[in-house]
Amino acid sequence: MLTADDWPIAASLLPLGDAHPRDPDGAGTAARWRRDLETVRDAGFDHVDLTDSWTRYGDLSAGELTDLRGALTEIGVTAPSLSAIRRSIIDEVDGADHLAYAHRTIDAAVELGVGVVSFGLHRALTAEQREQLWFWTVPGHRDPVDDPDIWQLAVTRFRELGRHAAEVGVLLSLEMYEHTYLGTGSSAVRLVEDIGLDVVGLNPDIGNIVRLHEPIEDWREIAAMTLPYTNFWHVKNYTRDEDLAAGIITTVPSYLESGVIDYRSALAMALDAGFQGVICTEHYGGDGLSMSAANRDYLRTRILPRRPRELGTSRVRQQFGGETLR
Description:
This protein is of the alpha/beta class. Helix content is 37%, strand content 15%.
């Protein structure tokens, strides 16, 4: 089993800017890839999560994928995971296009040596959300709760992606996100069970739920339901203050160790559930990469097991441990 010494902890590329074809100084994408990957390596990371806000992997040519893989090798970081975000496959207008992009992203992941690809049902930020300091303080899209046809569309399309992933030897992970069919512990588990493929699991990004300025499920209840189905994990934390009598809830991004989610307990629960997957450290605001590095060190030096220990039985296939895919 994995231990603190070899557990893959990947840096999210969220802090390194949005995808764009060329740098402001005129340098091409290959130069930007190398510069940004050097920044990640210099922050002490051996692994990177290929977050597609940084580069649209499903839209790269064969030559560009070769260049990116070469940059990873040259800089000395590996990419065990890829996170594709804000392209819901049940979007009323663009869902079919997003599904096609997701298929291309899975193929790109294979070319880049990635073992697990994370998708979600969250949408692009609204104009109002983009105007806020913290976008989660105003509501975005909500999936229709009582629409069996839309639910079944999500099941069918994710199952299609899961079968593709199984054919090419990668895992599929579904990211929890507020007000979608992956927005509560019970709904997320039901979706994975309805899909019914052991290659499809959950990415229980509980921070996405804890940060909401509204009443939420207790994080322990979410963890207890979702961790047996977890095959990849975005970790981040928030302070949270509630004055329900006054109707006031506030949240702010924090270090993993100082937020409302107790990751010491959460990691113990994950091991009890058989989790042996990539952990990706995320953070919003300020120097997000340095915060992610501090959170990596917290996990590796104080939380992850120093010696092999007995694991529980996972409900889904795992990337490492007894059922290594790649």
